[in-house]
Design goal:
This protein is of the alpha+beta class. The chain has three domains: 146 residues, no CATH class; 394 residues, 2-Layer Sandwich (Creatine Kinase, Chain A, domain 2); 132 residues, Four Helix Bundle (Hemerythrin (Met), subunit A), CATH 1.20.120.1560. It is 50% helix and 13% strand. It contains 25 helices and 19 strands. The strands form four sheets. Strands 9, 10, 11, 12, 13, 14, 15, 18 and 19 form a nine-stranded mixed beta sheet that branches. Strands 1, 2, 5, 6, 7 and 8 form a six-stranded mixed beta sheet that branches. Strands 3-4 form a two-stranded antiparallel ribbon. Helix 4 crosses helix 5, helix 7 packs parallel to helix 17 and helix 12 crosses helix 18. The chain is globular. It binds adenosine-5'-diphosphate (ADP) and magnesium ion.
Length: 731
């Protein structure tokens, strides 16, 4: 075996699980220890300050400097007691992940150079100016007006990371445009709160607030770090660009819910301890379908906070993996031929009166409310199916969607047979049959009670990108490395707009003299009918579905750069601007960033692939070919005639095959490089991304196909790159 690979595999086999012990016997002893949460605030802030801050958080009142100063002082005291020396504004740029710039608390007392003190004012808490010029903005800021600033998001609690007080913030330009993922999410959540509250008030005037909830399920792969280090494709692009599938992979389905290997179990324990310290309610851990694939899911929470927690969790998971001699792979498709990783976004809405709006009701009137929100959501998903797809699309996720284990690249909704029957029944009824006013003058559904069975989640369809699962919708198309903000901002905005439309339609009917009950029912019925095309309970992987979906007018585009265009369609511009979530200028700027990112990702992969092909694969092929040629020469030196021909026939065939494969690889690499030279000259971001998709990407398949075939014939000892069986089955 090639020495580097051999060493790495040997080391990986020898590794033992780390012994991890809990910080305390009870999780509740250390839960939220590093979060400036309610309990901590009560200790470090005065009653009045806390009350004022609560108003800012819950009622959206403006924060005055005096309060900010008080909060900053309390935060600093808490953080420094735990060893903090620095603080940072933590934000979510348009690229993946999070960004931060650390400043220490120190400042001069009096004249410069004399003595220092630790200082943290309300102004520093509320606002910071990172040098924004190197973050993508899609041209909103040209470099000479590079100033942008981060502003504190008091709805997501500050926390302590090592020696740094971390303050969740939004990131905006001086002219007010959002340069991040959080700002539009907060606006979308605000919009859905307002719209949903107003609709709820048609049923129950006591409802004053509706909260959007998110429960994410984070899938991931672990790879031994020694093996990772010997795969330049994994370390530079997060996925394997080459590699024949292992003889055994997931076909026995023996990994899902199987016993967790001890090294991984120790890792899982460790990330949970960390999660708890940060108040992240990690609940579920298990193996996933593919070998070396796992999942972590917390209990759901308020959407904005859940998004921040997911981002924090991803970075914790990355960091802790190193401690255990692993590398964490969050890429959506690190290995070809086996499942990729997603991040199901379980989404629901709930009122401040304790009603889950997607929970089939305990009371009949709640059921009408339930059907209202169900039909409105289906309508919103139907109208915005192309946009929802755009919200989860990236260069990486494109490899996962449509592959035979993830949702297809067509957004449809699955609601199960029982709910379908109920909607069908409603569609065929008159308002007199369907809606009943009881003796207490409360309106409710006259049709059969919605069965409790829903809550069992029995009726599941794994192929659906947007599935109803008992008390929530599960948006499954979201990618494992994604910032959930993107999908959540679009979904909540779309539903908010539809709820507003719903209310307006009902009111218009009422103004025309129709009773409220009948008006509500009529609009629901219209929505059930109009959004039917989005409902699909069959096999999302089938070829028939692609044909059928196109017939239904659903968006079937698979080209990533084209998919992004859904953000700037006239309907989407109207949606985002009317909901106050993003302006037209911001939408266009964001697409510029998306196209640019897409191009860069493919460009980096193309470079790595070219390097691997030319500097690893072709030399290996040549070396083995030369070995075979040598053998043929020796056979011919010893034997003659027919015997010599016979004995050397196999080697000769292999020599020819290797020659053909390496020629094909080299030609494809050369052509790919030429093509990149050509398309790099394109200025316009969309055209360039499209050219990378149409003209550069196709070479990947040719190079991979021939390389993977070579892997099958070349002497195992000569092969330098760890193989799939090694990457996937060593723990
Ligand atoms: P499965 O893998 O079967 O989908 P999991 O238990 O892994 O289920 O994940 C379910 C996720 O859904 C959890 O994060 C859970 O907290 C979340 N969830 C449950 N109820 C709701 C709800 N009403 N709103 C949002 N998320 C929810
Ligand atoms: Mg799930």
């Amino acid at each position: 075996m090639s020495s580097l690979r051999f060493k790495a595999v040997e080391e990986a086999f020898k590794k033992k699980a780390l012994c991890v012990t809990a910080p305390s016997k009870f999780t509740s002893d250390y839960y939220g220890k590093y979060v400036f949460n309610n309990a901590t605030m009560e200790k470090y802030l005065s009653k009045d300050t806390l009350k004022a801050l609560k108003n800012v958080i819950n009622k959206g009142t403006t924060l005055d400097l005096a309060i900010a100063n008080q909060v900053a002082a309390g935060m600093k005291l808490w953080a420094t007691e735990l060893g903090a020396t620095h603080y940072t504004h933590w934000f979510q740029p348009l690229t993946d992940g999070t960004a931060e710039k650390h400043d220490s608390f120190i400042d001069y007392v009096g004249a410069p150079g004399e003595s220092i003190t630790e200082d943290f004012s309300g102004k520093l808490l509320a606002q910071q100016e990172p040098d924004a010029s190197s973050f993508p903005s899609g041209g909103i800021r040209s470099t000479f007006e590079a100033r942008g600033y981060t502003a504190w998001d008091p709805t997501s609690p500050a926390f302590l990371m090592d020696d740094t007080l971390v303050i969740p913030t939004i990131f905006i330009s001086y002219t007010g445009e959002a340069l991040d993922m959080k700002a539009p999410l907060l606006k979308a959540l605000n919009a859905v709160d307002k719209a949903a509250t107003e609709v709820c008030q048609m049923f129950d005037p006591n409802v004053k607030k509706v909260v959007a909830y998110l429960g994410w399920e984070q899938e991931y792969f672990l790879v031994d770090e020694g093996l990772f280090a010997t795969r330049p494709d994994l370390s530079l692009t997060g996925r394997t660009l080459l590699g024949h599938e292992s003889a055994k992979n997931q076909q026995l389905e023996d990994h899902y819910f199987g016993a967790v290997p001890s090294r991984v179990a120790a890792y899982m324990k460790d990330i949970e301890f960390e999660a708890y310290k940060y108040g992240i309610p990690a609940k579920t851990r298990h193996n996933e379908v593919a070998p070396n694939q796992f999942e972590l899911a917390p209990i759901f929470g308020e959407c904005n906070l859940a998004v921040d927690q997911n981002l924090l969790m991803m970075s914790i998971m990355k960091k802790v993996a190193r401690r255990h001699g692993f590398r964490l792979l969050l890429h959506e498709k690190p290995f070809a031929g086996i499942n990729g990783s997603g991040k199901h976004n379980n989404w629901s809405l709930g009122t401040d009166t304790g009603v889950g709006l997607f929970t089939p009701g305990k009371t009949p009137e709640e059921n009408l409310l339930f059907v209202t929100f169900l039909a409105t959501t289906l309508m919103a998903v139907y109208k915005n199916n192309a946009l929802l797809k755009a919200s989860i699309m990236t260069a990486q996720n494109a490899h996962r969607l449509g592959a035979n284990e993830a949702p297809p690249a067509i957004v449809s909704a699955f609601i199960g047979t029982q709910l379908t029957a109920i909607l069908d029944k409603l569609e065929g009824s008159t308002s007199e049959e369907a809606i009943i006013l009881d003796d207490k003058k409360k309106l409710h559904l006259g049709i059969a009670r919605i069965p409790e069975v829903f809550l069992d989640n029995t009726d599941r369809n794994r192929t659906s990108p947007f599935a109803f699962t008992g008390n929530r919708f599960e948006f499954r198309a979201v990618g494992s490395s994604a910032n959930c903000s993107s999908a959540m901002a679009v979904l909540n905005t779309a539903v908010a707009a539809q709820l507003i439309e719903f209310k307006a339609e009902v009111e218009a009917k009422m103004a025309a003299g129709i009773s409220k009950e009948k008006a509500i029912f009529d609009v629901i019925k219209d929505y059930i009918k109009a959004s039917k095309a989005i409902r699909f309970d069959g096999n999302g992987y089938s070829e028939e579905w692609k044909v059928e979906a196109a017939k239904r007018g659903l968006d079937c585009e698979t080209c990533v750069p084209e998919i992004f265009k859904a953000y700037t369609s006239p309907e989407s511009v109207k949606l985002f601007t009317s909901m106050g979530v993003l302006t037209e200028k911001e939408l266009h700027a964001r697409n510029e960033v998306k196209w640019e990112t897409y191009t860069k990702k493919i460009q980096i992969e193309a470079r790595v692939l070219g390097d691997l092909a030319v500097n690893h694969i072709i030399p290996i092929g040549t070396r083995y070919q030369s070995f075979l040629l040598d053998n043929v020469a020796k056979i011919k030196a010893v034997f003659t005639g027919e015997r010599a021909e016979k004995l050397s026939a196999l080697d000769t065939a292999l020599i020819i095959e290797i020659g053909e494969r390496i020629t094909a690889i080299k030609n494809a690499v050369d052509d790919m490089i030429d093509m990149r030279r050509t398309v790099n000259k394109i200025d316009e971001e969309f055209e360039k991304a499209l050219a990378y998709h149409d003209k550069v990407l196709p070479y990947f398949d040719i190079i991979r196909y021939n390389t993977d075939k070579l892997e099958l014939i070349v002497d195992d000892e000569m092969w330098t790159l760890p193989k799939y069986r090694e990457l996937l089955f060593i723990r």
